[in-house]
Amino acid sequence: MDQPADPRARRLFGGSARALGDLAASPFRADRDRIVASPFFSRLGGVTQVISPGGSGLLVHNRLTHSLKVAQVARAVAERLTADDRHSDLLEKLGGCDPDVVEAAALAHDLGHPPFGHLGERVLDRLARQRLGLADGFEGNAQSYRIVTSTEIRGAATTGLDLTAAVRAAMLKYPWTRLDHPDPHPRHLDPTPRGAAAPPDDPESGSAKFGAYRTELADLRQAREPFVGRIPDWQQTVEASVMDTADDIAYAIHDVEDFYRVGVLQQGAVAAELMAWQREGGHLRAVTDAALTGAARRPGSAIERLRRQLHRKDSWIADDEAFAAAVEHVRQELVEGLLALPFDGSIEAEQYVARFSARWTTRFVDAIGVTAEPDVRSGHVQLAKAQWHEVQVLKFVHHRFVLARPDLALHQRGQARLLGTLVEALWEWLLDPEEESRLPRRLHDLVELAEAELHPRTPDRIGRARGRAIVDFVAQLTDSQAVAMLDSLSGRSGALWTDAFVL
């Protein structure tokens, strides 16, 4: 395939790799086809989004269905923006907004997410830094970027997915490394871009969220090169901003659907919280932060804490009138709408959920615009103030009434222990000289790849390469593969040959 003139379409590896999409009319559509054809994309069907499908017993979103819906929303947003002549000059000035680019980036954005959703991400990061000595730790977005640039092995060549610069740049929600790029690092800005701040309990660890490990820094720079001078080094491209906004929209809507289907999102609890704040908002605003925290179980207190948090973190858009209107709109849609009747699995119930999702998606997509000078905490593509607050309230509902549940915590603590034990078992296996010839071939290849990436004079080069290989290996498992592999390593599985699928 001839190299396109558009510098955003320039590939890192010279366009030598070929896939199903190479005959597509657009190089960006070829990228989309490469992503969808990748085994990493298929794997997402077995990776938890929020609730593990195996634990819920019902059909809920996994990382694959989530990615497909993010892609659908992202493309709708991009097509709407590019069809509006009011935005054309600004979009061109900022580097463009191609619907194929945002769709491809949305499909690829979760490729690196490990087993067990965000819990797995946190556990692997802790293990990578504290147990395996990897300063970059683990981050799902950075792992996705690593997959498309380096860790997908095709035969004898390690070439990633050979994606265009524009799609790789559009994957970068957080276009910085954990510690030192760009300079000055965005975690030192005041305020910090969203995700760039260090965790409060570990301020020396670098940014909590970041888009690439240092091993992929050269690729990040090459992907971002066409945008130099158009946007700051730490700012998302317009296409990344579209993808990020679409991800937020899908997360807010579809997780509420899941929790309703599973039956853990109850009308009475949501109604009590929202309506108590509406009745007693004036009184709650006069309560000190300490007193509010002490009254955590009092209805209305949690959403008042959300209102204050929005003012602290996002004062550029936080607005009490818009917040109150968002609470009312969500109350009407959820308390008097979706949650009024329990989900019973009927066709009518499914149609009702579908209408709820379509109504909210259309509302959000129609409320998106482009701004030339966004706040540091935002991208160039933004929801209108009213809808931005509605997204925050929807996300609050599932954080408050699902993620904070003790029964979910019990389940997740078991998953965290499983991942920790699996990492330890693989580390011991790698250190056993008598077992070197019987290592899983994938793990062996990943060790060689990680070793080749490190400078020859890197301290403890072999140890760090092994640590990164273990992280890469575990992150590529599905939920069920992680469970099955630990069962095998623990001697609990009697299915000798069928366990080979995880190797």
UniProtKB/TrEMBL annotation:
Biological process terms in GO annotation: dGTP catabolic process
GO molecular function list: dGTPase activity
Pfam family, any one: HD_assoc
Bias (Basic and acidic residues): 178-191
Protein name: dGTPase
Region Disordered, annotated ranges: 177-209
Organism of origin: Micromonospora coxensis
Domain HD: 63-252
Keywords carried by this UniProt record: Hydrolase
CDD domains reported for this sequence: HDc
Keyword Hydrolase among UniProt keywords: yes
Presence of the UniProt keyword Cytoplasm in the record: no
